């Protein structure tokens, strides 16, 4: 393959992006050109439109970053609305993927889900007929709580639903 063929193969086939805003180019010149003795004021006046467009681009980028990166709908959500939202979500779950996705999202927050949310998740695990996920819900609670006493309190609070659905904890399954 000769250099002409390599250069041709590296050339893009089509333009892939379209610029949002077209701006004139600013060239830095040195030496004896017409603008070498130009004052800052005249330079600023000459390129004011260009710098305004650059500033507009920065503001647009900042707005897009705020839109996509940090402004989530649930940022300032109260614990009660969080619990209600996930109880409703787990009440509507119809397949294992949805259940596991919801559990991952729910347990990703910096709080322990309420017993109502856990009960709804356990009922959803029963509805999709996945016993292992039900056991893992209790493992997730054990990891999220601060101490063993809180975990025992959750187990006592959820004892009725555990007996109703026949769900054992990992400790009960592997105690020999």
Automatic annotation (TrEMBL):
Component of the cytochrome c oxidase (complex IV, CIV), a multisubunit enzyme composed of a catalytic core of 3 subunits and several supernumerary subunits. It comes from Rhizoctonia solani. The keyword Membrane applies. This is Cytochrome c oxidase subunit 6, mitochondrial. CDD domains: Cyt_c_Oxidase_Va (cd00923). SUPFAM superfamilies: Cytochrome c oxidase subunit E. One of its GO terms (biological process) is mitochondrial electron transport, cytochrome c to oxygen. One of its GO terms (cellular component) is respiratory chain complex IV.
């Amino acid at each position: 393959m000769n250099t002409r063929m390599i250069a041709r193969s590296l050339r893009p086939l089509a333009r892939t992006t379209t610029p949002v805003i077209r701006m004139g180019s600013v060239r830095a010149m040195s030496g004896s050109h017409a603008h070498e003795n130009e004052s800052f004021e005249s330079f600023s006046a000459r390129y004011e439109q260009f710098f305004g467009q650059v500033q507009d681009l920065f503001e647009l980028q900042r707005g897009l970053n705020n839109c996509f990166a940090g402004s989530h709908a649930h940022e300032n959500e109260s614990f009660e609305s969080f619990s209600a939202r996930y109880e409703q979500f787990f009440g509507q779950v119809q397949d294992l993927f949805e259940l596991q996705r919801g559990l991952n999202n729910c347990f990703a927050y910096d709080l322990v889900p309420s017993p109502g949310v856990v009960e709804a998740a356990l009922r959803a695990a029963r509805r999709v007929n996945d016993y292992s996920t039900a056991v893992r819900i209790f493992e997730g609670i054990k990891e999220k709580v601060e101490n063993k006493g809180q975990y025992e309190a959750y187990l006592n609070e959820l004892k009725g639903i555990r007996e109703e659905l026949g769900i054992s904890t990992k400790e009960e399954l592997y105690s020999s």
